[in-house]
Write a structure and sequence with these properties.
The protein is α/β, with parallel strands linked by helices and 391 residues long. It has 14 helices and twelve strands. It is globular, with a radius of gyration of 21 Å. The relative contact order is 0.17. Bound molecules: pyridoxal-5'-phosphate (PLP).
């Protein structure tokens, strides 16, 4: 049988992250002592009061379809969050709850991009953005950055990349994979250009709460009415509430875009899981004290890992200001990032994600969403590995 795969599906790049991850998992299952730096999710458990709210919803029989864009109570809680944390006014009708922040991103791209449109994506990028643009029939336009500018695009770079086909600019600060955080001034400068040129901004703010060293997050939507009108904010419960498996993301958009996304979602996934949404309400309206201890723990690991990485000959690493990733430069060690990671896993049983997966072959992504003991062990092994390369 000759199965014909659609050109759009066939155009997708297979996930390098998953290839490394499945090899690491297979080694672990075979009893090998693998240290994983690949995790894209917090290692903390979901706070108990959130689980309790979900369990109660199940016990109460809250197990049926809900409105496809989410229960009113949750959309209101999200609108309240934007008012409280970001000074942004959204009506619940401008909020869409989706099956994860990733699903929110995909909905935004599908609702705004057509065949032949261009989507500007700074690299290193979260690896799903370009593939989502391709699924919508649009063309990803990649803007390269390096550790010399802390992986930030400049206003000049953005301006030069905009054409009459440009539809969307994707901004992700704090960033996965680099951990870099744009300053409010830098965000405003990029937003100003998009407003001037009539380009929409998809601002992925899922790591909003995870910043260090006094870095502050400011949403591009918050600078003026014009910025607000050009911005769709994507967010979710995965990272700051450690709810990756719950599949709950959300977005806030100008009304016509929210309406289009509501239609898309009503014909694709329908509503996010009913009882999970009740947990989402508890997460947003309940106490936020868990964050303080998580942030203190992340900060400790980040400092240790950053110092240790920079002590290894051949590696240099800018310190991240957000999320839970470091993005060390390995270009002096003479291996492409995929080879580097494959050999690191084989020789030292350390799993890291090659930078090439994020459009930056000179780097690795190290997640510090794992215990300090693991970080110490894994980085000692990385050091030993790098010494064998240097010889
Ligand atoms: C984790 C993540 C998301 C959303 O993840 P979900 O699990 O789908 O909620 C979105 N954007 C970035 C950059 C992320 O790292």
């Amino acid at each position: 049988m000759n199965y014909k795969i659609s050109p759009r599906a066939a155009s997708l790049a297979p996930s390098l992250t998953l290839a490394i991850d499945s090899k690491a998992k297979a080694m672990k299952a075979a009893g090998e002592d693998v240290v994983g730096f690949g995790a894209g999710e917090p290692d903390f458990d979901t706070p108990q009061h959130i689980k309790d709210a979900c369990a109660k919803a199940l016990a109460d029989g809250f197990t049926k379809y809900t409105p496809s864009s989410g229960i009113p109570e949750l959309r209101q809680a999200i609108a309240d969050k934007f008012a409280r944390d970001n000074g942004l006014t959204y009506k619940p009708s401008q909020i869409i709850v989706s099956c994860g922040g990733k699903h929110s991103c995909y909905n935004v791209i599908l609702a705004t991009c057509a065949e032949g449109d261009e989507v500007i994506i700074p690299a290193p990028y979260w690896l799903s953005y370009p593939e989502m643009a391709k699924l919508a029939g649009a063309t990803p336009v990649i803007l390269s950055t390096s550790d010399k500018t802390e992986f930030k695009v400049t206003p000049e770079q953005l301006r030069a990349a905009i054409t009459s086909r440009t539809r969307l600019f994707i901004l992700n600060s704090p960033s996965n994979p680099t951990g870099s955080v744009y300053t409010p001034e830098e965000i405003k400068a990029l937003g100003d250009i998009c407003v001037e040129k009539g380009v929409l901004i998809m601002s992925d703010e899922i790591y909003e709460q995870l910043t260090y060293d006094g870095a502050t997050h400011k949403s591009v939507a918050s600078f003026s009415q014009a910025h607000y009108d050009h911005t769709i904010i994507v967010h979710g419960l995965a990272k700051a509430w450690s709810m990756t498996g719950w599949r709950l993301g959300f977005l806030a958009a100008p009304e016509p875009i929210a309406k289009a996304i509501d239609a898309i979602q009503s014909h694709s996934t329908s509503n996010p899981t009913s009882f999970a949404q009740k947990g989402g309400v508890a997460a947003l309206n309940g106490p936020q004290d868990h964050l303080k201890s998580w942030l203190a723990e992340y900060a400790k690991r980040r400092t240790y890992a950053w110092q240790k990485l920079n002590s290894i000959p051949g590696i240099s690493c800018v310190n991240s200001k957000g999320a839970f990733y470091l993005f060390p430069n390995i270009s002096k060690l003479g291996l492409k990032s995929a080879d580097f990671c494959a050999r690191l896993l084989e020789q030292e049983k350390v799993a890291a994600v090659p930078g090439i997966a994020f459009g930056a072959d000179d780097y690795l992504r190290i997640s510090y969403a794992t215990s300090l003991a693991n970080i110490e062990k894994g980085l000692d092994r990385l050091e030993r590995f790098c010494k064998t390369l240097a010889k």
